TrEMBL record:
Source domain of life: Bacteria
Protein name per the record: THAP4-like heme-binding domain-containing protein
SUPFAM superfamilies noted in UniProt: Lipocalins (SSF50814)
Organism: Lutibacter agarilyticus
InterPro entries assigned to the protein according to its UniProt record, in alphabetical order: Calycin, THAP4-like_heme-bd
Start and end residues of each THAP4-like heme-binding domain: 9-186
Length: 189
């Protein structure tokens, strides 16, 4: 009889599935100001099993894909993929994020009891160009013209509802710009 191995996804278990939301607001830079884009999106989180690093660190892994469409024309204007990982021993959560602007990052945070309260999961995770643990990698063009300096993601999940709020600090068009995205999503059955 083959053995069934149960993966312990810990906090990541709450993310598994297909999420949809249509109340998104994106604030993005323009050369002569700011654009505001109402959007809808689908985020799919799939189980990726677990793996071992250096024969000692065990990571439970989810792969995700996030597709964001502008309400004004139904066109895809943000496409993101990566992994969420959880180290049960250290209770560390990590999010690797890649966008096809040639920007990638690894955000991370150590969790504690305050992240799980009354069935609600709250994650506050960040990365920065000066952060030695949780960094950002970007192309030479982006470094020069549209630098991502810091990234922060606040995520809450409770009873099949997710609130996702992201702040990406940019240096673009000769100024600092707070690029923000926020949406509420529902787990599809
Ligand atoms: C829901 C999520 C997001 C949406 C809808 C979104 C949308 C946009 C839009 C509309 C622009 C303006 C340029 C354009 O029209 O293409 C932009 C610029 C930019 N975004 Fe995002 N974004 C999102 C998340 C992110 C994230 C997570 C990062 C990086 C960590 C990021 C990095 C950038 C950068 C570097 C630019 C400047 C490039 C430029 O305007 O030339 N964005 N984004």
């Amino acid at each position: 009889m083959s053995e069934i191995i149960e993966i312990n996804y810990g906090p990541l278990a709450a993310l598994i599935g297909v999420w949809k939301g249509d109340k998104g607001i994106d604030i993005a830079p323009e050369s002569d100001g700011t654009e505001e884009n109402p959007y809808y999106e689908t985020i799919t989180f799939e189980e990726g099993g677990d793996l071992t690093n250096g024969e000692e660190q065990v990571l439970a892994v989810l792969h995700y894909r996030k597709i964001v469409k502008r309400k004004s024309d139904d066109g895809i204007f943000h496409d993101e993929t990566g992994y969420w990982m959880w180290d049960a021993k250290e209770n560390v959560i990590m999010h690797s994020l890649n966008i096809p602007r040639a920007v990638s990052l690894l955000a991370g945070a150590k969790l504690n009891d305050s992240n799980y309260k009354n069935g609600k999961l709250s994650i506050d995770i960040s990365a920065g160009i000066d952060n030695e643990d949780w960094g950002i990698v970007q192309s030479p063009f982006m470094k020069q013209k549209a630098l991502t300096k810091n990234y922060r993601q606040e995520l809450t999940v409770e009873n099949g509802k997710m609130i996702c709020s992201e702040t990406t600090m940019l240096e673009i068009y000769g100024r600092a710009f707070e690029h923000t995205d926020k949406n509420e999503l529902t787990l599809q059955s």
